[in-house]
Design goal:
By secondary structure, this protein is mainly α. It has 2 domains: 135 residues, Ferritin (Up-down Bundle); 144 residues, Ferritin (Up-down Bundle). Helix 5 runs antiparallel to helix 7. It is globular. The two termini are 38 Å apart. The mean pLDDT is 92.
Length: 331
């Protein structure tokens, strides 16, 4: 089985992993230059060693398959000596989200892998990201920074739904939020809040007018989504998480290339499309479903506009694709 060719699914996961790990190395190297807390520094070191190890393994896979190694991101995309742009607290939340996104991505990669060596690699990565997430959570808890999802009372007994008003959210009285709806709203606020802080920093260090405008548009969009999701929670007297605007410094010196900042922005938006889709599937209240459908269309338009900028600037690396049979058949 190990001699079998890589499938399109395995190629896509290897290729995407390489881009994401090379981006992570750039981010983590910069953070390590400026972090002050020793506990957070140790976890950043751990995450950096993990990503660098992934890059070595991925490069070996590509070379063994005689597959061109992607360009990804290099030392040209980071200026580790640029002034501090984000606080230590931001860095720790970044590590927590890195663990969350890594677990999600590599659970998919593992499930898509047929070759034993691919399955073993991605499953190993899944466990590594799980370990990173656990360590980040433990550190957040120890520092009193962990943001817990809201609490609700335990039900007194198991019950069934008997009224179709359970589905309603627009007219008349709507039912209280159920636990899964609360969870998704809370987590989407968290992700948007971290994204908003990230884009605040990116927008104040970018220099190209078109890119600055795009990043500000994304920051404003994230703020709006936080407000909408928070308002749904507040109607049931459920507290919304705080935002992290204050974790961004006033520096205007870019630590990252505009290529890296644009790629990361569009990648995060693409991930949000998946989370919003899953959240919409996890609710049956019509008003919340409408919010997710409308906001998902908005962020998909934003992601498309970002892809156009990446293409116009020559920054979008061509992903592996099937041969164009029509072009090959031309005389």
């Amino acid at each position: 089985m190990s001699n079998a060719r890589l499938t399109a699914a395995e190629i896509s996961q290897l290729w995407g992993s390489y881009l994401n790990d090379t981006l992570s190395v750039c981010m983590l190297r910069y953070f390590l230059t400026h972090v002050e807390n020793n506990d957070i520094r140790a976890l950043l070191d751990h995450a950096l060693a993990m990503s660098e190890g992934h890059i070595q393994s991925l490069t070996t896979f590509f070379n063994d398959e005689q597959f061109p190694v992607p360009v990804g991101f290099t030392e040209d995309d980071v200026n580790v000596n640029a002034p501090r742009l984000y606080s230590d607290t931001f860095m720790l939340y970044y590590l927590q989200q890195m663990g969350t996104l890594g677990m999600n991505a590599h659970s998919v990669s593992t499930a898509l892998s047929a070759r034993p060596d691919m399955h073993d690699y991605f499953f190993g990565c899944l466990k590594e990201y799980g370990d990173l997430h656990e360590k980040a959570n433990h550190l957040l808890l120890s520092k009193g920074l962990y943001i817990r999802p809201p609490y609700i009372p335990y039900p007194e007994k198991a019950e069934f739904v008997h009224k179709k008003s359970f589905l309603s959210g627009f007219f008349g009285e709507h039912r209280p939020l159920v636990s899964l709806e609360i969870t998704n709203l809370h987590e989407n606020i968290q992700r948007n809040a971290l994204g908003m802080a990230t884009l605040i920093g990116f927008s104040q260090v970018a220099k190209t007018k078109e890119i600055v405008q795009y990043l500000i548009r994304g920051k404003d969009m994230a703020a709006k989504h936080v407000e909408i999701f928070g308002s749904v929670l507040s109607k049931d007297d459920i507290p919304a998480p705080v935002t992290w605007d204050s974790e961004v410094t006033a520096s205007t010196v870019a630590p990252f290339s505009e290529k890296l900042m644009m790629f990361m922005t569009t990648a995060l938006i693409g991930i949000s499309v998946g989370y919003y889709g899953a959240s919409m599937a996890g609710t049956v209240r019509s008003d919340i479903q409408t919010h997710y459908a409308r906001l998902n269309a908005e962020i998909m338009k934003y992601a498309g506009d970002g892809a156009k900028i990446l293409i116009d600037k020559g920054w979008m690396e061509n992903p592996p694709q099937a041969p164009d049979r029509g072009e090959l058949a031309k005389p």
